Amino acid sequence: MTEIEEPTEDQVAEEPDALEQALAETAAEGEEAAEEEPAEEEPAEDDEAAAEPAAEEPEDSDEEEMDADGVTVSKHLKDSVEGSLRLKRLLSRDDDDAPDPKKRKVVDPEAAQKEIKIRGLLAKWQMVNDAVCKHVLRGLSLEEVIEVEKSNYVPDKFHMQKSPPELLGRFVGDLKERKMVGGSPLDSVGAFKYYHKLDLESEKKLRALKHKDLRYVLTEYDGSRPLDEVIADAAKFEPEEQCTATAIPEYPGPSTVGRFNRLELIDPLADCAVFGDANLTFAVKLAKHRKALGHVGRVIATTFEEVETLRERYKEIDESIKVLEDHYAEVYHGVDCTRIAIDPRFEGMEDSLGAVYYNFPHSGAIQGFFDGHPVVNWRHENLMRLFFRALRSFVKPGGSVKVSSNMGAVGVRYSYIVGSALDNEFVHVETMPFLEWHLHRYGRSYGDKRDVYKRPDAKNNQSYNAQAADRDMVYCFIYKPSGETLPPQQVRLPPTLKTLTLTVDGPFKHLGEAAKKNLAMQLHKRFVTEVSGTHVG
């Protein structure tokens, strides 16, 4: 339980004045958020502050949105990469001069109300000068800020291990996860029940179905007809062709469907892609698996780093590449999975991928910060948001996507994976324990400089001693596009250069003003480099 600090008499005396001044300023102008952190307010976000220079930015021209680092984006792929380009513009604009004060500023009443509540919370917590806590709250919607307010939560300023911004960021994440499916194992019926908001009686009926009938219901039910009608149709249905999906029709439904996911019985004709496979050991295992099953679809194995860097870290990398090429796989280096729409190597692959894999995604460690710290955690959330948006143009309808992660991870939280998938019409169909997956025995790696002295260990999959292997999960999704145009992909706003300079914990804790400013500029430069598709670390 969080310990709530009792304010001192001086703090109590100062608090009403600070709050009254904050409320008066915001109600009168509705612009304070933008003046303090101009780049943090993004027009595409629902949680923007009251007024923002970003609102003054003219609508992006086709040339701006269709060109990234000199590479032209096809019109039909623009949506797949727009969020990534917008994030880069946000960070780059932070270096620009302040906007012209004579320009008319747009005031959003809802954002003004949110700013009032944020200032009230910070005054209540006696943290009016905590720039990072302010950044966390401004990244929320008005409804979420109200929820934090009603919870009576107060960050513990005397926590032995975590700073108030870290605690606040974790609390906000926990609030969101209470409203969604959990991160623990969940079979196909459980995921289906949650997605369609079915009751316990409906779940019992589904669990009693045989494999043929359950698969029919999972495929055909969309909520437009009563579940009982669809179950009745399933009993009459006879598949026209014999294929993997129609095998053993009389076996128990839930366990049989689960075996299909665990045995990785994917479309034998479709290509599949593996992203972020640093040492390519998973891709090798997948290629051998597909060959043993007689598949003719290609394996497209990708790494984030260039091959020269990989050779410095993994002495076996050339052998892995040779094995993949012997299995007729494609190997691409320097691939950013959030920007494949502007990667010429993926040209012509639209709507062709039948399966996609991304094991233990991570945006890279930053020295001095834990992965859950708000200064760096936005990178992990945006990784998942932009990854699933990019896949929309390349995964064919009905294609599968599997993302493995630890259910207790604080970097890429499970809610980032599931939430980002659902936002982009990838339906969550199962969460299975990683150790039950047929492909789990491969050589995991950190994917950064640590791999030089910490070799991956495939035995019992104990590469990482900081997390329990039995809490590793594989989150399984199926792409079911509605055909409707989705709104622009929201991105988690990065901290501005000013916010970084005002950070007082992590590597900034014992630095002087000049050193803080220098470190803030280095971090900001790294963020810009990362969102441009270049790996650092």
Calculate the terminal CA-CA distance, rounded to whole Å. 37 Å
**What is the ordering of alpha helices and beta strands?**
HHHEEHHHHHHHHHHEHEHHEEHEHEEHH
Structure class: alpha/beta
Q: From the 3D structure, determine the CATH topology of the largest domain.
A: Rossmann fold
How many β-strand stretches? 9
Instruction: Give start-end ranges of low-pLDDT stretches.
Output: 1-66
**Average pLDDT value?**
84
Largest sheet, spatial ordering of strands: 5-4-3-6-7-9-8
CATH architectural group of the largest domain: 3-Layer(aba) Sandwich
- Give the overall shape, derived from the CA principal axes: globular
The number of domains = 3
CATH class of the largest domain: Alpha Beta
Largest sheet: 7 strands, mixed
Share of helical residues: 40-55%
Domain 25S rRNA (uridine-N(3))-methyltransferase BMT5-like: 276-442
GO molecular function: rRNA (uridine-N3-)-methyltransferase activity
Protein name: 25S rRNA (uridine-N(3))-methyltransferase BMT5-like domain-containing protein
Organism: Alexandrium monilatum
